[in-house]
Amino acid sequence: MLKKYQPLKEKAMYTRIKLTAWTMIIFCSLLAIMSLSNDSEITVPVQPTLEAPFYDSVYKTYGISAVQVSGNFVIKETHFVQRLLIPAQFLEFDILSCVLLIVLSTIILKLLPHIHSQALFKTDISHWIGYIGWALMLFWLLDTARIFFYAMPEIKRLTNNEFVFRRTGYLMFPLQFWLGIGILWVSRLYKNAFRLKQEQELTI
């Protein structure tokens, strides 16, 4: 718990983070339930497949620049597996992303009582910090798997092999994966710092 003598600015920051975490948990839980319980449409970014007759075709040119054929595929009536495994655009909703936010918000709520100035390094919370790193890496793995093993073949099937799911960022720079590794490294540093502080207190 926060001490009464803790600075007001730090208490205000603590309260804002806590409210934000609870808001994310409640909001994402409601959206997940609503999305899985109805056949709402999904908008998916697509591009022509290599076999499509209009692959690499130009929609319009601007001098030496050109706009190639790509777009969004709107699936009007979706079933449960599609809503669960096809990554939707951000403004609509993505169930896997919301699950990640719920997990991260829960971990943050666990960490909050131990990271203010009066409690830092008094409890070993390195495992909770590590959970954040593992959650991000697992999210990247599951997201990549659902794209390659479900979203891509499913979009090809629905469009008669003319379009495929468009997502290249995961191949070029897996941000969640490297961020997870970085947080695991921070977790290790915190554990070493905690042990060092404990040893210093024992020698006093």
From TrEMBL:
<feature type="transmembrane region" description="Helical">
    <location>
        <begin position="95"/>
        <end position="116"/>
    </location>
</feature>
<keyword id="KW-0472">Membrane</keyword>
<feature type="transmembrane region" description="Helical">
    <location>
        <begin position="21"/>
        <end position="37"/>
    </location>
</feature>
<feature type="transmembrane region" description="Helical">
    <location>
        <begin position="128"/>
        <end position="149"/>
    </location>
</feature>
<keyword id="KW-0812">Transmembrane</keyword>
<keyword id="KW-1133">Transmembrane helix</keyword>
<dbReference type="Pfam" id="PF11188">
    <property type="entry name" value="DUF2975"/>
</dbReference>
<dbReference type="InterPro" id="IPR021354">
    <property type="entry name" value="DUF2975"/>
</dbReference>
<protein>
    <recommendedName>
        <fullName>DUF2975 domain-containing protein</fullName>
    </recommendedName>
</protein>
<feature type="transmembrane region" description="Helical">
    <location>
        <begin position="170"/>
        <end position="190"/>
    </location>
</feature>
